[in-house]
């Protein structure tokens, strides 16, 4: 058991040197990363080709389950040599080692630009097709100029997609091949049992010699079950990926709002965006939580949609194909007075409310015929109880489907606003945002890079005339242009520092030491007696 626990650290310890080679941004690191990437990629390919236990699960499972690892290692095998060649060509200058410097400059330029945004004008008379198009486009993450999603969010979504892929492959291999084996080995003796239990319809006597039609029907049922399983699996994969892409758009909106200081636009109540012990723990566990929630939500969706597909297929599609009566159709046909009563009651209430109980005045509507309204309310109470029961069933179905589909998203809470802190996924996401915004504010880093920029090199002084007097040679005349340039540079840096200190949207991004007067350059007075 101890070795099983230590096995959880095997892959992080194995691949951590490969990822650490990109940290120094030096040619030696890129060279080591190239060798490690090539070695890992070759070892994975050789292991997949020579593994003797691969066919025990399924012939293609070993290959399909390692496709993400092979693709990632192949990408690193190309990325490290490209970075190495770029480093050899341009050199290891300190400017190139600063991560994200160009992005922070672009963010500052986009923030200070005076261009009108394309989405500033909103059309009131928007058509239905354009609204549907905009709703569908909201599930597709489109990069915007001047804003970049943090790397940890991209890695978290990628890891979640890979984890869902692994679970989908495992579910596919665990169910579909056994179903095919059962369908191929179906015999008439098994069909007799199915006919006796009423699972397969029979045209005549259940004699083993006269069950050819029943045997074909049983195999057709198993084939339909396999199709339902594969369709539900594909639908769950598409829904999970769509929800993860939608969460990227929500991440961008939340980060942009927090960068601007609009805390109440993201959280239900005001929060201080400073790191804490719980925030750091949630920041470390965010990617793992995203993968775990995505896999569990995928399993829940698979169970729900598989049952829905099976119910629709065996209660609607197959009875229509075979020309037999469906139990669902029989229930609906026998309960037609109930459904007619509900429809008539709902329609009558809407008509009475529109024509008898509301009276149009100049600018508003007023309630009229109050005695008749009370009488109709009392008479329709039992009928409305039945309508309420149907509405309650519909509420359970809708809430279950909504929660199952959105279970993989950590940026929204599945609980009410008052008790959303009991949602561990949403609480982890909120603490992650606190750490990300307080430590990686792009505007703060852009101004810091402006402060760290070296001044412009002064032009070389002209050669002095050797015929001048010795006293003039000993003089050091001051250049007024250089003094003015230096004063402008000092003034600009003081303006940047003043902006960093007094911008309210950057208050949570500053270090807490800046609140000390001594840290800001003020002199402390003598302590009082």
Automatic annotation (TrEMBL):
Q: Which UniProt keywords apply?
A: Cell membrane, Membrane, Receptor, Retinol-binding, Signal, Transmembrane, Transmembrane helix, Transport, Vitamin A
Which GO terms label this protein's molecular function in UniProt? retinal binding; retinol binding; retinol transmembrane transporter activity; signaling receptor activity
Where is the chain membrane-spanning? 153-178, 190-209, 221-245, 304-324, 336-353, 373-394
Tell me the leader sequence span: 1-20
Q: How does it sit in the membrane?
A: Multi-pass membrane protein
Q: Does the keyword Membrane apply?
A: yes
Cite a GO CC annotation: plasma membrane
Indicate what this protein is called per its UniProt record. Receptor for retinol uptake STRA6
User: Which PANTHER family does this UniProt record tie to the protein?
Assistant: COILED-COIL DOMAIN-CONTAINING PROTEIN 180 (PTHR21444), RECEPTOR FOR RETINOL UPTAKE STRA6 (PTHR21444:SF16)
Q: Which InterPro entries match?
A: STRA6-like
Which species is this UniProt entry from? Nesospiza acunhae
Q: Which domain of life is it from?
A: Eukaryota
**Which Pfam family, any one of them, does this sequence belong to?**
RBP_receptor
The protein's predominant localisation is membrane
Q: Name one GO biological process term.
A: vitamin A import into cell
Its annotated compartments are: Cell membrane
């Amino acid at each position: 058991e101890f070795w099983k626990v230590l096995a959880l650290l095997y892959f992080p310890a194995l691949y951590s040197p490969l990822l650490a080679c990109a940290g120094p941004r030096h040619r030696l690191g890129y060279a080591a990363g190239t060798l490690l990437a090539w070695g890992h990629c070759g070892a994975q390919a050789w292991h997949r080709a020579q593994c003797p236990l691969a066919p025990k699960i399924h012939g293609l499972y070993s290959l399909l389950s390692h496709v993400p690892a092979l693709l990632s290692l192949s990408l690193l095998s190309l990325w490290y040599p490209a970075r190495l060649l770029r480093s050899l060509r341009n050199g290891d200058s300190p400017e190139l080692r600063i991560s994200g410097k160009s992005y922070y400059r672009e963010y500052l330029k986009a923030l200070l630009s005076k261009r009108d945004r394309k989405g500033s004008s909103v059309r009131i008379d928007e058509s239905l097709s354009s609204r549907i198009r905009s709703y569908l486009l909201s599930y597709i993450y489109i990069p915007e100029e001047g804003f970049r999603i943090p790397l940890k969010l991209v890695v978290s979504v990628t890891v979640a997609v890979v984890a869902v892929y692994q679970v989908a492959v495992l579910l596919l291999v665990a169910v579909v091949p056994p179903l095919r084996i059962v369908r191929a080995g179906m015999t008439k003796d098994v069909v007799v049992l199915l006919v006796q239990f009423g699972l397969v319809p029979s045209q005549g006597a259940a004699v083993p010699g006269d069950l050819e039609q029943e045997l074909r029907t049983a195999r057709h049922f198993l084939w339909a079950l396999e199709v339902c399983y594969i369709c539900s699996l594909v639908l769950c994969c598409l829904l999970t990926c769509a929800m993860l892409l939608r969460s990227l758009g929500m991440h961008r909106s939340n980060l942009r709002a927090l960068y601007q200081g609009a805390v109440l636009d993201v959280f239900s109540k005001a929060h201080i965006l400073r790191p804490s012990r719980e925030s750091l723990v949630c920041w470390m566990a965010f990617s793992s939580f995203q993968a775990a929630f995505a896999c569990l939500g995928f399993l829940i969706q698979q169970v729900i949609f598989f049952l829905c597909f099976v119910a629709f297929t065996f209660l609607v599609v197959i009875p229509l194909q075979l020309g037999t009566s469906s139990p669902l159709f029989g229930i609906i046909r026998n309960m037609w007075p109930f459904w007619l009563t509900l429809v008539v009651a709902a329609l009558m209430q809407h008509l009475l409310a529109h024509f008898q109980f509301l009276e149009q005045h100049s600018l508003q509507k007023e309630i009229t015929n109050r005695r008749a309204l009370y009488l109709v309310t009392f008479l329709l109470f039992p009928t409305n109880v039945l309508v309420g029961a149907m509405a309650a069933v519909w509420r359970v179905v809708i809430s279950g489907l909504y929660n199952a589909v959105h279970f993989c998203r950590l940026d929204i809470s599945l609980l009410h606003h008052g008790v959303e802190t009991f949602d561990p996924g949403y609480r982890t996401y909120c603490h992650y945002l606190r750490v990300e915004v307080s430590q990686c504010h792009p505007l703060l880093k852009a101004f810091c890079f402006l402060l760290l920029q070296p001044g412009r090199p002064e032009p070389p002084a002209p050669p002095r005339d050797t015929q001048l007097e010795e006293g003039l040679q000993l003089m050091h005349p001051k250049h007024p242009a250089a003094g003015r340039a230096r004063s402008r540079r000092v003034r600009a840096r003081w303006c940047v520092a003043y902006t960093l200190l007094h911008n309210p949207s950057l208050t949570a991004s500053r270090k807490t030491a800046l609140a000390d007067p001594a840290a800001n350059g003020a002199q402390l007075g003598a302590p009082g007696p």
